[in-house]
Amino acid sequence: MIVIGVDPGSVFTGAAVHQNGSFTFWAESDDPIVIWKLIRAVRRNNPGVPLVVILEDFLGSGPRNKHAKRTIEVIGYIRYTCIAHGIGVELVPQQYRKSNVMNVPTAIEGKDEKAAAAHVLSYIERKARGI
């Protein structure tokens, strides 16, 4: 199974691809279309391999500033583009990644790609525990 973590930040969106027990690629971009193209390329290059996208959800409340608005738009774009192309998406709260930030390989340096990788590790951990 391939697990792609996506962490939409206020400016950049991070992504991390985990396959065969390790991270194979990670990136950050201020353009969510670049992140979608990464997801699409992973799917095309691995036909028949199950793929799931773990996407951090935005659970804020109150007035929205431009950063919150952008984050919500990125989540919607990634989520519904994946759904439209038959790719499974699991929305997860920000807290899910916190226990695994320190377990992300040091080669993954960007703030948002590191957060995306932590979401992947947390997903794998939850699945191993049957959650």
Keywords:
globular; alpha/beta; Nucleotidyltransferase, domain 5; 131 residues
Give the termini distance in whole angstroms.
Answer: 17 Å
Order of strands, widest sheet: 3-2-1-4-5
**Tally of helical runs:** 4
Structural class: alpha/beta
Radius of gyration over all CA atoms, rounded: 14 Å
Quick one: biggest sheet? 5 strands, mixed
Overall pLDDT metric: 93
General form = globular
What's the number of structural domains?
A: 1
The helical percent reads: 40-55%
Number of strands: 5
Q: Class in CATH?
A: Alpha Beta
In the CATH scheme, what's the topology name?
Nucleotidyltransferase, domain 5
CATH superfamily: Ribonuclease H-like superfamily/Ribonuclease H
Would you mind describing this structure in some detail?
With 131 residues, the protein is an alpha/beta fold. It has one domain: Nucleotidyltransferase, domain 5. It has four helices and five strands, in the order βββαβαβαα. It has a five-stranded mixed sheet. A hairpin with a 4-residue loop joins β1 and β2. The longest helix has 19 residues. The two termini are 17 Å apart.
